[in-house]
Design brief:
It is built from six helices and eight strands, in the order H-E-E-H-E-E-E-E-E-H-H-E-H-H. By secondary structure, the chain is α+β, with helices and mostly antiparallel strands. The protein starts with 5 loop residues before the first helix and ends with a helix.
């Protein structure tokens, strides 16, 4: 049996831990490698969709078995179904992140432009941003996080617009 055998693929899918989010939207900032180390050296399948802005630090990761170097000013999107593993973390990190749960994603009506963007992300999930885009992305993460702190739960209608904005960033 080859590696593309449906039985082997099903076994691999069942073996990997699946990571989802406990609520529709999670946002935050990491400046400590302790949480990242929880995901180091062990692959998992992402059920949610995760957005990451790495302002500082270096992370070598595998995304769908392909190696990526996530360094200063990289923007990374992990789509649902992605197999992800952190291989190495180096230096002081400063990472902004946001994520939407698989439950929320099932409630979003797919629109053609988001589907098109998803194909581009699947081909290249990690990009280095231009300086003006870095500031904009950081402000966006901070604003969404602050809004969640001030207003509490974000309605799904508002969250859909926030999600679309992140997809086009």
């Amino acid at each position: 049996m080859g590696m593309n055998s449906p039985l082997i693929q099903q076994a691999m899918e069942n073996e990997l831990p699946k990571i989802d989010l406990p609520e529709d939207l999670i946002t935050g900032r990491l400046t400590d490698t302790m949480i990242l180390n929880l995901y180091a050296h062990f692959p998992c399948r992402i059920k949610a969709e995760i957005f990451v802005l790495c302002r500082k630090g270096e992370v070598d990761a595998s995304i769908n078995l392909k190696h990526y170097h996530v360094g200063d000013n990289c923007f990374l999107i992990l789509l649902p179904g992605t197999v992800f593993q952190i291989n190495r973390i180096e230096g002081d990190v400063d990472i902004y992140f946001g994520g939407v749960s698989s439950d929320f994603l099932r409630s979003v009506q797919p629109i053609k432009s988001v589907i098109d963007v998803s194909y581009a992300i699947k081909r290249n999930p990690c990009v280095v941003l231009r300086p003006e885009a870095i500031e904009m992305a950081q402000s966006y993460f901070e604003t969404v996080h602050k809004s969640k702190e001030v207003f509490g739960v974000v309605s799904r209608d508002v969250l859909k617009h926030l999600y679309y904005s992140l997809m086009y960033m």
